[in-house]
Each structure stands twice: as structure tokens, then as C-alpha cells.
Design brief:
Layout (H helix, E strand, L loop, with lengths): L4 E4 L9 E6 L8 E2 L6 E6 L2 H16 L17 H17 L1 H36 L6
Antiparallel strand pairs: 1-4, 2-3, 2-4
Length: 140
Amino acid sequence: MLNFIIKTHQKDTVYKGNQIFILNKGMNSGKPQKEPFTNSFVIMFPDEKDAETVYWLAYSLWMSNFWHPFLIGSVIPFLRIQDFKKDFDCKVNEMMQDYELHLKQIQALRLLLEKEDQLKQKSFLINEMRRAILSRYCIK
């Protein structure tokens, strides 16, 4: 069983130990990050392994738009901490039931992110080469 504490992040608060931050406003609500967002929840863990495991679970939930049905508000949608705590805890418990599958999925996600970064870098280099070739026509 994973031990963690979910709280609302307070601006300029410095946390010790292991934590992740979950965005709670806007259409990207549920997005995890290692650095604090302005409008976010903080999830604190006793060790790094638990933080990494839950980070990837939160990432998976965010990418699958799991939190969209829980958003409220007409202008700027946001996620209530009560809804987040209840449903996030349920998902963590489900994940712990089939932990081996979760570890395999984390490996696959990391590999896909790595390949995506490589593809972005190659695309950037191709565009730079295109600009260098086409700049010849503008130098006259």
C-alpha cells in the first residue's frame, strides 16, 4: 500500500522530501509535474520510488482525460480536491492490484516519450536545414 498525503499547494511553500504536483485549473487539470504549478495539488510521499510510481499513474490519467468529467466551472474549469482525493485513491488502489502490469506500462510510456523527444529534435533540425538552404534566396 502506498502512503501519500494530498493537499492544496500554497504559493511560495517549500516542500522537503518527495512530492509531485497536479494542476487543478483549466482543461489540463490533472497534469502531473515535478515542479509546482500556481494552481495545483501537492502529493507528498515518504520515498522516491512511491513518488515515481504515482507520477506515472497520474500522467496516464491525465493523458486519457480521466479528470474531464469531474471538472466544474463555466469559464475556467477546475477540479475539486475532494473529488480528486476520492477518485485518485481508488485508481492508486486499482493500480496496486496489478502492479507488474503497471511497471510494464511505465516502461512503455518512458520509451514512447523518449522516441517523441527524438522525433521533435529531428524535426527541429530539418526545419533549421530548410531555413539555411532557403536563406540563400534572401541574401541578394
